[in-house]
Each structure stands twice: as structure tokens, then as C-alpha cells.
């Protein structure tokens, strides 16, 4: 980690982008006296956090998780939460027989569940190596032949 990421230095000739003083003040909780910071802003200074983690502070997409490049088989995805597709369809269709109220929170929750089923299967490949006897890995999702053939 370079010193310039820790302190608001002015280095015009080096082309180095450093988090602004506002981000550093938020990281140190030095500007909690005003109402806007206390009520409306998150206390997490994302640019500062990316900089100290050695990522580009201005580009949130610079964070990369290698396991995210491998998509689990659809056969396994639908086994994690078998009713998820039904509920997504019920939520998105105004003519649904289920009487599901359409709202943003429910839609976001269903999107989260869809994302988590993929993350669970991606992480399970590595977790199963460390904890092969965990009860989660004794369930039907991880007992099927397709799951047994997936290796890290």
C-alpha cells in the first residue's frame, strides 16, 4: 500500500489518484457533527476502503472475485430454492393466481435470493473441501451426482 492512499497528498506529476479529504474524514469519523452525515450518508467511505484494499478508489468494478467467473449448472441452481422461479413469476406478473403484491422490496429480495443461490454453490466447492462432514453438504443439493462431480 502506498503512502499516498493514507494521506491526502497533492502529487500532480505522478498521476496518482487518492481519496479526497472528505473520504478520509469519513473513514476516521471526523465529520460526524453535521446532520447530513449522521442521518443520510452511510458511514462507510467506499472510495477510501477501495484505496486501502489496493483497488482503484474511483472504479467500484475493479473488485474481482475469481469464483464469480464460473456459473454453477442450472440443475444445481434450481435445487437450492426450488420455488424461487415460481415466486419470481408470481411477483412479476400482475395477473398472478398467487395474489402476490408487487413492491420493490419483494422484487429486490427475490433478486438477492437468485444471486445467493449462485454464490452458495460457488463457495460450496471450496467449503466442502474444508468441512466435508458439515450437515449442509449432506443435503439433497450436494448429494446429487452433478454436485459430486464439481471440483474446485
Automatic annotation (TrEMBL):
InterPro entries listed in its UniProt record = Ndc10_dom2_sf (IPR038279), NDC10_II (IPR031872)
Report the GO molecular function annotations: DNA binding
**Domain Ndc10 as annotated: residue spans:** 23-143
In its UniProt entry, what is this protein called? Ndc10 domain-containing protein
Q: Write down the species.
A: Hirsutella minnesotensis 3608
User: Where is the organism placed in the taxonomic lineage, from the top?
Assistant: Eukaryota, Fungi, Dikarya, Ascomycota, Pezizomycotina
Amino acid at each position: 500500500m502506498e503512502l499516498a492512499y493514507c494521506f491526502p497528498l497533492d502529487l500532480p506529476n505522478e498521476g496518482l489518484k487518492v481519496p479526497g479529504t472528505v473520504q478520509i474524514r469519513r473513514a476516521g469519523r471526523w465529520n460526524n457533527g453535521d446532520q447530513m452525515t449522521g442521518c443520510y450518508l452511510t458511514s462507510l467511505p467506499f472510495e477510501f476502503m477501495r484505496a486501502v484494499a489496493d483497488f482503484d478508489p474511483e472504479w467500484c468494478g475493479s473488485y474481482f472475485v475469481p469464483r464469480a467467473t464460473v456459473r454453477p449448472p442450472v440443475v444445481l441452481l434450481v435445487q437450492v430454492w426450488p420455488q424461487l422461479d415460481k415466486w419470481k413469476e408470481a411477483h412479476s406478473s400482475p395477473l398472478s393466481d398467487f395474489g402476490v403484491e408487487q413492491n420493490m422490496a419483494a422484487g429486490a429480495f427475490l433478486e438477492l435470493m437468485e444471486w445467493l443461490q449462485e454464490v452458495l454453490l460457488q463457495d460450496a466447492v471450496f467449503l466442502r473441501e474444508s468441512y466435508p462432514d458439515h450437515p449442509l453438504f449432506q443435503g439433497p443439493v450436494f448429494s446429487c451426482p452433478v454436485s459430486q462431480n464439481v471440483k474446485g
